[in-house]
Every structure is written in C-alpha cells, then in structure tokens.
C-alpha cells in the first residue's frame, strides 16, 4: 500500500523548513525592517522589487487552482518544472541507494537530476511506436524504485502514453508516479489532474514554458495530494518563484482567450507541417504528435541537421536517442517558419 511517510527520506520527515521573515510575521505593518532588504527602494524597474516575494505564492496558486479545478493546497510551484523534478527525487530517493524508472527516449532532465542526486536511473526502452505496455514493466520495479517518471505527451516522440498502462502503474506501484504533462495543452486528452483524488501516489507536472509562452520566466507546476505538496514546500528554497514571475504570471492568467487561440493556431500549423513533411523525399517517417513538436525520421539526420544550420534553421538532432536513429525533433513554428523549413528541405542534396 502507498504510504507517503514511509517513502519520504528519514532525514526529511522530521526536518524543520527554513522560516523566512515573511513566515514569521503575517499581520499588517507599515515599517518592514525584518528581512535586511533595502528600505530606500530598488535599482530595478519596479520600486517594490526591493522586497522579497511571497514564499507561498498565494495569489498565483489561488488563480491557478480556479483554472485547473484543483485546490491551492494541491499545487506546488517551481522554478520551471525542472525544479519539481529535482525536488521530487530529493524528497523520496536515498542517494547512493535508490532508483527511479523512466521510459526512453524521453526528457533528459530525469537522468540529469538522478545523476546529480546519486540516484540510479533505470531506463526501459519504449516500443517501436514509442508506446508503453504492461509486459515491458516485468521485473523493472524493485524495492529501491521510488519514482516512476512517465512523460505524456512524450518528448521527443510526441505521443501520449497509453492510459491503461499508466493506470496499471498507479494502481500497482507503491512509490510516486510522476506524469510529466509539459505538452498536454496541445493534446487531445484530458489531464491526469482529474484523478488526483483517486491516486494518492500521483504527481502531475505542467509548465508555463510551452503553451503559455513563458519559458523565460521559469514557472512550473506540480499537482498532487496535499500531503505530497506540503513536503515539497518544506524542502524548496524559500523564495523560489521571484516577484516578477509571480506578477507577470498572475496577469497572464486573467485572460486565457489568447492562450486558446495560440494553441489552436499551433495545432493547425502542426497538421499542415506534418502533411508537407510527408511529401518530402528526405523524410522517411513522420510520427504522430500530441505536442508542439514533431519527430521526423529522415534519410541522414546528421547531414540534414548541418545543412539546415547553414540555412539558419536550428532543429534538434535526436539520432543518438534510443529508438530515434536518423530522427530530428522539429518544433512547430509560425506558418512562415514552417514554410521556409519545408522549402529548404526540398532542396537538400539537389
Ligand atoms: C517533458 C518536459 N518536461 C519538463 C520540461 C521543462 O519545463 P520547464 O521549462 O518548466 O522547466 C520540458 C522542457 O522542454 C519538457 O520537455
């Protein structure tokens, strides 16, 4: 049975979090000389940037909770979802002893964070369609396995991972199941956040870096049980979301109309790009995509990558990733960018 307190590292269970000046005083006051800030003002654009930001990001979480239909207590905010990945590993994995499981090819930061924390990453190869089946899990989960990472839609393949296999893992695994939904806004399926109550071991990651177009601001979300979130809050750096990011994100969340328009446009551009890429002689296969990028198998990924660079076009060469020989990952650009890419590829080797 899943029991979070058994899973959390013993040194963290009883750990006292840092108590910031803003934690210790919560009432109204007119003079703040408790945090060694600059009381004269700020050299930055906004004068109030002299003050530390809200360490609990209350306003932002309240708004996100409304939009995502969860409670604010079910939300952790990180300096990008990369921060959440790292903190989740640190929360439950004993360095030099524990393991995490992921399915490759997939997002590289699970491995980087595992290495950084001296945790072994077991990577099971996805099948030829980049899908995950129950059989592939046989013998892969051990007593040292504390987290299973599932990226859906998966980066770099672009496909959603089979819901029934994910459900099976959620039901049968007693560690954390982290579903990374960085690209969910471009997909046809609903988010796993709808199932947080059902599965106490579920953590869903989302980000403002993709559909929201706010990669520069570094804001990621983890949705989970109140219990998991309170542990993440306990171990995070106190002021991990800066004031500018909190303000700008709050503003962006006020009106989501443009977000839906952009998602729609990216999906339309994706359909056109897939159709056009399929017509090219250099393209051997175009994988289906539920994300804002497309994995494309070409005749010679290394040569085509260099050729595109010379034309000023940068794509991601994924030929060295498991199951991705001669594949490139191409983000869906503007209509004009996609047209330029297709036109350039047409002239390769001519
Ligand atoms: C699957 C996946 N998860 C997480 C991230 C990181 O997102 P963030 O910018 O929120 O750190 C990325 C970025 O490319 C990604 O592809």
TrEMBL record:
MF GO annotations: histidinol-phosphate transaminase activity; pyridoxal phosphate binding
Record-given protein name: Histidinol-phosphate aminotransferase
Sites of N6-(pyridoxal phosphate)lysine modification: 210
Cofactor dependency: pyridoxal 5'-phosphate
Residues annotated as domain Aminotransferase class I/classII large: 38-345
Protein species of origin: Adhaeribacter pallidiroseus
Assembly and interaction partners: Homodimer.
Keywords in alphabetical order: Amino-acid biosynthesis, Aminotransferase, Histidine biosynthesis, Pyridoxal phosphate, Transferase
